[in-house]
Amino acid sequence: MKKFVAELVGTATLVLFGCGAAVLGGAHIGQAGIAAAFGLAIVAMAYGIGPISGCHVNPAVSFGAFVSGRMSAGEMIQYWIAQFIGASVGAAILYMIATGGGDGAGSMGTNGWGPGYLGEYTMQSAFIFEVVATFLFVVVILGATQKAAPAAMAGLAIGLTLWAIHLVGIQVTGVSVNPARSFGPALFHMPAMSQMWLFIVAPLIGAGLAGMVFKMGLLEDRANDGV
After folding, report:
1. For the CA atoms of the chain, what is the radius of gyration?
2. DSSP secondary structure letter of residue 175
3. Where are the domains of the chain?
4. Do 108 and 95 meet the contact criterion of CB atoms below 8 Å apart?
5. How far, in Å, CA of 91 to CA of 182, rounded?
6. CB neighbours (10 Å) of residue 5?
7. How far apart (Å, rounded) are the C-alpha atoms in residues 227 and 221?
């Protein structure tokens, strides 16, 4: 139950702070500020709930951990449930705040691609970006949390990586690398649901590939087998 609550709270926080920066402050802080909000939210939660659940707050991360052999299928599903509920709660809180302002909730910081969406990149570009970015993100997470790595620095490394990914990819997809982060805001901006499939499939492919790399021992210190 502690892990469930931690993942729920952590994912809600990521959506509220990250998407909230886009919805409530995007016009003032710009894309660099939005990227920082996502990265810093992960840093905060990594140290806040990391000792309890590992701070996955992302179904793709949990899937990567499962593929790498670091968690069971049953535990992964429990994490997924908590993460999707948490993302929905975070988005609901953001929606209630945003609709009380003059600009309203807008698109709720949803992910997308194509005509009318930010850089208007193609579906192919969006898919490639999400697979590669998620792969690299999960590689950093699995690498930074293996026993051979300095534990105190893991949260900072992971948060800075997510920050960098957003700096590169906001114009492409708004950056998902996290199916729950995409799902929560889409509940309150239903047109985004038509493209939701990509933000489930691509991150899971990227995370699965990262998990396989660690399962094969290519990036893991087997002398200090990570868990």
Report:
1. 16
2. -
3. 2-224
4. yes
5. 10
6. 14
7. 11
Whether residue 127 contacts residue 136, with contact meaning beta carbons closer than 8 Å, is answered with no
Task: Give the tens place of pLDDT for each residue, 47-102.
Answer: 999 999 999 999 999 999 999 999 999 999 999 999 999 999 999 999 999 999 87
Q: How far apart are the first and last CA of the chain?
A: 20
One-letter amino acid for residue 53 of the chain:
S
Which residue's entry shows tokens 């990567």? 64
Structure tokens at 112: 């997308």
How is residue 183 written in tokens? 């799902």
How many Å separate Cα 194 from the centre of its chain?
20
2-224: CATH topology is Glycerol uptake facilitator protein (1.20.1080)
Rounded CA separation 35/182 (Å): 15
Judge contact between 55 and 10, C-beta under 8 A: yes
Specify the amino acid at residue 62.
Answer: S
Encoded tokens for 204: 């899971």
